[in-house]
Amino acid sequence: MMHRVRQLLARYYPWFFLLLGMDLFCVMILWVSDIDALRKLSALIFLTSFLLFILILVVMNRREMRNAALFQQFVSDPTPQNETRLLQAVSPQEGESIRLLATVLRQYKEAGSTMAGTLSDYEEYVEGWVHEAKTPLALLTMILDNRSDEMSPEIHTKLDYARGQLQEDITQILYYARLRASTKDYRFTQIDLLDCVEEVLEDYASLLEENEFVVCNKLQSESVFTDRRGLQFIFGQVISNALKYRGDSPMLTISFRETDEGGVLSIADNGAGVKEYDLPYIFQKGFTGDSTANRKKATGMGLYLAKEMADDLKLKLQATSTWGEGFTMEVIFPKISD
Length: 338
Description:
alpha+beta; Heat Shock Protein 90; five-stranded mixed β-sheet; two-stranded antiparallel ribbon
């Protein structure tokens, strides 16, 4: 309230000085013409001017608040009805600006509606494409599982590797579309971390085996409160990152610890790692870092999507690395009170 009063005084103080000047002029006239009238009327003159100034502040405050409410309503919904109400409350000069603003706002609103419709169609197309792509992927999986004896081990290994890569790409584009969707279907529950992680390791088993990874899973009976599918997606992207930038005798170490900040799931590899000056940018869309042979094949989307998902789930991702020695990603789960 006091802030509003100070704003009004700062805006209309010239009126006060104008009234004060008129009062001083009247007092001077009375002093020249009649000293007795000066003694009787000077206080009344100043009091009247003060009350008149207060009345001006009250009236102008009500007018500004009414116009502000009409303007807010108009900006939120620039219909012709709201435009007319606002035009009736402002001066003709301001009315020209309001009409121009109304035209621009309606154009932006129409463009926004068109863009929203296009985005919705895009989301539906992507999700439909993903589900269609899952059919041949499922067929390939069935053939690899049931007819492996009809093909050579080398061909089976290559097809299984291709299947794993295709599965990862489909999952990535599906979650990219879901992260941009207007509605979310997350389900937050208390989940068994070991069971959740082992499911992801099973999905990546062929890729890990093809790249001769040794997996050291130190998880036991820890549980966390989050969305199961979202966490598995984050974990999958970290594994995919480790596969791309593997080193000699690749190893993946998974562990969990409790800290004052919350539970921390750690996924560490002994691959190429990330240079110190690249580390702050690894979650940026399209960032691939140092242009080595492996990074030329990267899209820069995996860790970006993992970070987007973590933000949606209110989780924190924290990366550390030493160039040439390995990379560690930590997923920090906030403490949940009873």
